[in-house]
Amino acid sequence: VNGKIEIPVVVNVLYRNAAGNLSQAQIQSQIDVLNKDFNAQNTDYNQVPALFSGVKANVGISFVLDQVIRKATTKTSWGTRDAIKKSKQGGLDPTSPSTKLNFWVGTIGGGILGYAQFPGGSSATDGVVIDPLYFGVYSNSSSSYPYNLGRTATHEVGHWLNLRHIWGDATCGNDLVSDTPSHNAPNYGVPTYPHYSTCSGAPVEMTMNYMDYTDDRGMYMFSAGQKARMDAIFASGGARFSFAQ
Ligand code: ARG
Ligand code: ZN
Ligand code: CA
């Protein structure tokens, strides 16, 4: 990797009404959250408990808004089968997906906040989909609460950069990261610290990790092992090497 990774971001807005046609400021608020969360500049970073202070990480990847593409639609929900990413299905094809991170902002439906494609998939569908209610920062009194702080995109970009859920998508599952403790299952809300796992060794769970399922205000760190996993895909031969040039 030649120095610092800076990822150009294309935001594809598929809007059905004014509320879904996010303002430039709302879009920029999401870029700002990504830059804070991936550079240990989030104001809640210092809330990481002492138990995890040795493994909390500054990932060191930055994001710059490249362009916003807007398209009106009559579709009320896009689902999770990538129609939103295809012009032929009423959506928008990605722009330069091997060198730019594409977001699609449109109503997903089914209670889904967002979803991402892992590295190694088809470039035609590469990127992250986020519901407009959860893209960028909204006030606590908005209908976006408690997912109103832009952390859905932080979590989904974590997947896009090869991170698994911290509970490994199984009871006491494996997230392929050695410095994150074993979690029984996803955590929701804002768990009281310390929350003990009943997995082998009964570790304290890292519920404040972005790859758990807590409320936005309950998640504020990546680990060093997660950073290493993300860094690896930008190395020569890695699935996102084209972004490191
Ligand atoms: N893929 C998850 C979902 O849609 C996203 C969870 C994001 N969590 C959050 N606190 N924003 O259910
Ligand atoms: Zn997830
Ligand atoms: Ca682990």
Task: Write a structural description.
With 245 residues, the chain is of the alpha/beta class. Helices cover 13% and strands 16% of the residues. The chain is built from 3 helices and 7 strands; from the N terminus they run βαβββββαβα. The protein has helices spanning 24-37, 151-160, 224-232, and strands at residues 5-15, 56-57, 61-72, 101-105, 114-116, 128-130, 222-223. It has a 5-stranded mixed beta sheet, covered by helices on one side. A two-stranded antiparallel sheet has the order 2-7. It is globular and about 50 Å long. It binds arginine, zinc ion and calcium ion.
Question: What order do the helices and strands come in, and which of them pair?
Answer:
Elements: E1 5-15, H1 24-37, E2 56-57, E3 61-72, E4 101-105, E5 114-116, E6 128-130, H2 151-160, E7 222-223, H3 224-232
Parallel strand pairs: 1-3, 1-4, 4-6
Antiparallel strand pairs: 2-7, 5-6
Bound molecules: arginine (ARG), zinc ion (ZN) and calcium ion.
Family: Belongs to the peptidase M43B family.
Domain Peptidase M43 pregnancy-associated plasma-A: 114-233
Keywords: Disulfide bond, Hydrolase, Metal-binding, Metalloprotease, Protease, Signal, Zinc
